[in-house]
Write a structure and sequence with these properties.
Blueprint (H helix, E strand, L loop, with lengths): L1 H11 L7 H15 L10 H13 L11 E5 L7 H7 L4 E6 L2 H14 L5 E4 L2 H8 L3 E7 L4 H8 L3 E11 L4 H13 L2 E3 L3 E4 L6 E9 L11 H6 L3
Helix pairs in contact: 1-3, 3-4, 7-8
The structure holds S-adenosyl-L-homocysteine.
């Protein structure tokens, strides 16, 4: 059943089905570990297939990831970064999360799936920028923070000419307006968002796209306390 959902969803995205066994194994490891720690609120395997795997996979139809260095900021149990890397092996992936247990889980999954080049980093995005500033072609993020905050966490990591892709619900007009100032202060340009439907569902989603047009000033990102207290 889950396999059929994945097969149909991937086919709707014109993606091959050969990576389905890897996704299924990832789903098993997620279900197993979720019994002993909080990785995801979604536990039904069919929902995991749709809301985690296919929602992540949908990005491959909306942007060109081939050969890109990609950082997934606040990846949690690996979304969207890990399904992207499983389905597009030319991605050079860094998974970043502030919770050590989640990063340990990701390391385990990557070992099991033989994804030995995936970099799993335990750390906070605003601190990671000290060592990896302007060094990724793409940053992606889902369900981490509101855009003005998220932009300060992610844009410093993206090189000029690269993009930051934020997965949001369609109900984000206000959030987009509020983020305009932050995005330009951080050297970005807000593009027209891309709306899509998670394949095989009628769930609408929105990809907010920010192009990095100039280097981010060294004073950003600030400490998280400051970012939170006083979003740009
Ligand atoms: N992206 C995943 C997880 C969302 S939950 C998904 O969509 O399923 C949010 C995650 O962001 C948590 O795992 C949390 O530890 C992480 N996080 C929050 N703030 C962060 C920061 N400043 N730097 C790195 N990770 C952060």
């Amino acid at each position: 059943m889950t396999e059929d959902i994945l097969r149909q969803g991937l086919s709707a995205l014109s993606l091959p089905s050969e990576r389905i066994p890897a996704l299924l194994r990832y789903g098993e490891l997620l279900a197993e570990k979720n019994k002993v720690m909080n990785l995801t609120a979604i536990t039904d395997p069919e929902e995991v297939a749709r809301l985690h795997f296919l929602d992540s996979a949908a990005l491959l139809a909306l942007a060109d990831f081939r050969g890109e260095s990609v950082v997934d900021v606040g990846t949690g149990a690996g979304f969207p970064g890990l399904p992207l890397r499983i389905l597009e092996p030319s991605i050079r992936l860094t998974l970043l999360d502030a919770q050590r247990k989640r990063v340990d889980f990701l390391q385990e999954v990557c070992g099991e799936l033989g994804l030995l080049d995936v970099e799993c980093v335990h750390g906070r995005a605003e601190e990671f920028a000290a060592s990896r500033r302007e060094s990724f072609g793409l940053a992606v993020s889902r369900a981490v923070a509101a855009l003005p905050v998220l932009a300060e966490l992610c844009l410093p990591l993206v090189r000029v000419g690269g993009k930051f892709l934020a997965m949001k619900s369609v109900d984000t007009a206000e959030e987009l307006n509020a983020a305009g100032r932050a995005v330009s202060l951080l050297g970005g340009r807000l593009e027209k968002p891309l709306d899509y439907v998670i394949p095989g569902t009628n769930i609408p989603r929105r990809l907010v796209i920010i192009t990095k047009i100039t280097e981010t000033q060294k004073k950003y990102p600030r400490t998280f306390a400051k970012i939170k207290k006083n979003p740009l």
